[in-house]
Amino acid sequence: MVEFAEFDRLWRTWPWLPITMAMAIVTTIAMVTHRKRTKISLNFPPGPPKWPVVGCLPHLPFGPPPEVMFAKLAEKYGELMLLWMGTRPYVVVSSARMAMAFLKTHDPEFANRPVSVVRDYVSFKGNSIISMSASDPLYQRLRRVFIVELLSPKKIAAARELRKEQKMLKMLQAIRGELDASDRVDFRKAVSTLGLNLSVCMIFGRHCGGKVVPKEIETLMFTFKKAVKLIQRINISDLLPSIRWLDIQGIEAELRDVEIQLRKCIMVLIEQKRLEMSSWSSSEIESGANERDIMSKLLSLEGEDRLNDDQQMGVVFALLIAGSDSISKGIGKAIEELLKHPLFHKRALDELDEVVGRKRLVEELDIVRLPLIQNIIKETLRLHPPAQLLIPHGNLEPCEVAGFHIPARSSVLINLYALSRDPLFWDSPLEFFPDRFIGSNLTVLGNDFHYIPFGYGKRGCPGLNLGMTTLQYGLALCLQCIDWRLSASSTVSETSVGSKDLPDLFVDGELRVDPRLLDSL
């Protein structure tokens, strides 16, 4: 939200601010008038009335999360809306039909990213796969590196033991310790830490998984969390680019500092990895030492696949963004839903006992024989995808979609909250019901546009396979090892969709397996 106290201070103490604002308003009015003269015959998507400078902001029902607000507006304006937020056009997609139009039919036109202040500072000079244009040759090269060299099924399988031993089991060991000490644990904090730690561990290797976190890793995680908070803030400079130079909220100044810190943290870890690799013997290399973690593989690339420092830092940041939140949110929300639905919780435990038992720990290879665990993750991703609004798509040129004129440089928001609750495709869409996937051909690959938790097309998530593998295995292991229960004073909110700052959720529980299975690392 805009920090009005700070704005008021600037207004009173800096005499040039009123003049600057007046110039911005006059310029914007002139641009709007020019647009009206040239766009009379164009058929724009419906949307709230637009005012000079502020656009439709006065008509938006602020309060609920954005995805909920957009879904409510779609009930009035339809499956495709045009919202002028400040002076920027935002196109909101709220149906599977329109999602297919933008992500498949017109994928080449909309496979770009809109300009934003955040993008300028966390793209590492335009080298992040998340923010760069899909038409950029570097994007194509990086995406191929992700899919073929870093996140292929073979590479995912090679890191199986790393995911298990270094983080999954260590998180459960930590939770067990807290339960032994105080009979309860802050579950949301635990899974949030798991998501970030597991992502860092898979990127930089086994040395991140010890009981004492190295200082460099700790600094990186602290700085990364600061960056995420800044990314999540609404920046008035994005809505009113003509006054960006004022940096009214101070977000750009903070981003500048965070970028410097991120560069320093990531480069220290990259140099450490280079030093480690220089000491490898020929036998270690032949035995696949460079396949142990993502950074080892990155530094081993040769020829045209070789990446410079900025590109390597961009890869690290993209993996942290995509991995940490999806892992923690997916596993966390799945268990929260099971705590609200004890029948499915019991059935999941029975399935684990029947297929795996309690004398050994579940393995990733067991997942194919655990259909309910798979369906619980699918249903969790329907109600709680990694992001309820896909990362915005953008078009460089004006174009026509489904008979509507889409202005150039629009930010296209695909509202998964609306798609996954559309009664045309889902029976009882608000209900958590994993059995809806029994006998269904629905997958997370995105072939059915009412279910695209990882996106689709050129901007679809390249780490989809790793994400699903980690979520399914993580949930199975958490359920097998601990019989989770809500603490006496805790409740799971039914309306927590989209909330950024949820209250602590304390749980207790008992070990379901032999403690020696967790102590044998």
Automatic annotation (TrEMBL):
Its keywords, alphabetically, are: Heme, Iron, Membrane, Metal-binding, Monooxygenase, Oxidoreductase, Transmembrane, Transmembrane helix
Q: Where are the transmembrane segments?
A: 14-32
Q: Which Gene3D superfamilies match?
A: Cytochrome P450
UniProt cofactor(s): heme
BP term (GO), one = secondary metabolite biosynthetic process
Which positions bind heme?
A: 461
Subcellular location as annotated: Membrane
- By what name is this protein known? Flavonoid 3'-hydroxylase
Q: Which organism is it from?
A: Pohlia nutans
